[in-house]
Amino acid sequence: MFNFGFVVEQALGHITHYQNLKYWVDRDTSIQPNWMPIGEDKDIWEKLPVIRNNWSLQVSLRTRKHIQAAMKLQTLDALYFHTQSLGLFSIPLMHRIPTIVSTDATPLNLDSIAAGYNHKVGDRYLIERGKFHWNKSTYNAAAAIITFCEWAKKSLIADYGIPAEKVTVIPPGVDLRKWHFTPKEKLHSTATNPLRLLFVGGDFARKGGYTLLEAFRNGLDQDCTLDIVTKDINLKQELSGTQIRVHCDLNANSQALRQLYEQADIFVFPTEADCFGIVVSEAMAAGLPVITTDVGPLREQVEHKVNGLIVPPSDVSALKNAVQTLKNDPAKMTAMGAVSRQIAEKRFDAKRNYDQVLSLMKSISQKSPQHINAIHHV
Predict the structure, then answer these.
(1) Which of 8, 50, 61, 304 has the fewest CB neighbours in a 10 Å radius?
(2) 265 lies in the same domain as 135
(3) Is residue 41 a contact partner of residue 47, using CB atoms and an 8 Å limit?
């Protein structure tokens, strides 16, 4: 039996990753998991100057507290951190317990798309260098590193000097059984059967939602319908009474959410900044062509004119033209959707991908001195 600690950041798409990881870990009977979801909390760290305004400092201090509490109850054979921000104050613990650091992006990756996140890149050299070396020390303390994409792996190697053999690319997976729908031919006569567009993004503005709204209002509404899944309750009130359907209460992997994917014809995701699109993987598993932007690592999921179309961020005309291009070629739309499913089966199979994560955890735990000593004392 392996006693593993799973420490996962509870923000944005990391929550979906946490839920998916937990689903598959709980099905491995050789693992006794200790779950430590880390997010906002009512504690001293949210009140102290400097720390209360810095998410990374808050969650890393909470992480250290949770791990120390867990260690009093049991010996931890390995730790899994997602993301590296959680490990900033746990480097000494990482030297004692074999640890995997999982990440969708490095801090320098994030800096490269900072505008879309309303993230200000620091201009104080000494402070920025200090942050850089602190993150680098966290990466170095890890026994192994998992990245969601090649984009992040390349940054670890080129920017942080991490050996390539220490980094494994394992994207978050999708349960292909739950997201497998009967393919439907796109034989639309848009006069009687409007094209169904689907957008999913909790952060509506950053995910390009307003670009999509403008494109929809400027002609797409004539022969398309639009479903929007988001956390923005104000948007639902704003669009009340229109033909746009806004869903604010759907949970990840829920039947209602999957039904929207099943009913959709095109997944539209004109995001302005992203580190990895889990919703894009879900759309691909659902057999949908995807229209998205060339930001972050999204080209690793969507190949232009193969399983979707790539448009520039914030370009209303390009987005509108992309939708119309697919609408006018139903056969191409069907073919792209089929390729999306094929890619999902090859790269985003949750069972296979999460099994790889757990196999890596077992491997690093078995190589640790505490595991070897335990074997010698048996």
Answers:
(1) 50
(2) no
(3) no
